[in-house]
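Record type: monomer structure entry
Structure origin: computed from sequence
Chain ID: A
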Amino acid sequence: MTESVLAPTAPSVPTPHLSGIQKAAALMITIGTVPAARVLAKLPPDVQEAIAAQILDTRAVPAEVRTYILEDTYSSLFAEMNDLQGGTQYALELFVEAFGEAKGLELLDKVHAARAKHPFEFLLKADDMQVAQLLTSEHPQTIAIVLAHLEPRAAAKILTLLDPAMQVEVARRIAQTGETTQDAVNVVEEGIKRRITTVVQESTQVGGTKPLAQVLNQVDRTTEKSILQELTDTDPELADEVRRFMFIFEDIGLLDDRSMQRLMKDLDTKDLALALRNVTDDLKAHFFNNMSSRAAEMLREEMSIGGQVRVKNIEEAQSRIVDVVKRLEDSDEIIINRGGEDGLI
């Protein structure tokens, strides 16, 4: 059997003169082994044999033949097909085929999440002062629903611009809000939208002490203290719950070197050795860089000889250190850089 180039390369011989079997063989070679195998498997046995024989006889497929084959195949497909069906089901089949079921489903979820709409997002296009003035005339519960759906930094800016008494009332309602029905959010959103003239987005479920803590983490220290103090006076348990969400152990990375060095003076070495067991290398370095060489060496030794410990014990040690951080901040001995506008003079 003599191998040959599938089609003559001379310009005088047009590529459309290929036989059906030659075209099929050229297509199989062009699209690659895996797709070709899938196509070949669906053909009748006699056609499979004929194409296989032609593939064996083919030494090469010239570039102009590949171009012709692909264009001809594309035209033939669309001449015989109705509208192609895309959508979620096709995307799912494609992703599962390409990446496997687990990764395919994960990718589809990520795509859906990225395309999800967020309520009140149109407010981000408006001036913060205008939004605050607009919301001032609304009921505190309405304002709470709006701010709870916004990104914490944006909500913090608006909260800061409200009247102090309103700030506390809105903060309380954000913390106490549980599930908010889609209908309720839609009603609020429609009312705000009519006054802002922009696009209405779909609703999501938010509310509770954690969203309030995220907002307060972005406001200046004066506003934060004022709101927390008022909450403490009227509802100490609610205030404590908010505080628990406001600062976590990983946030110690926000402390500057001076604050870190002050913090180190009040920390128990055993607590610190436990607390650093499951944190990032960057956070560990933040501690070690603010210690003397001797202290750092002793801490590393303590961490190396501790053996296996329960996650609960690590979290308790981290919690005790966070309590020290809060105490030092309340006494203005350290500064937590929350990214707000509360600067130093």
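Annotation 1: Confidence is low (pLDDT under 50) at residues 7-14, 198-205, 340-345.
Annotation 2: The longest strand covers residues 58-60.
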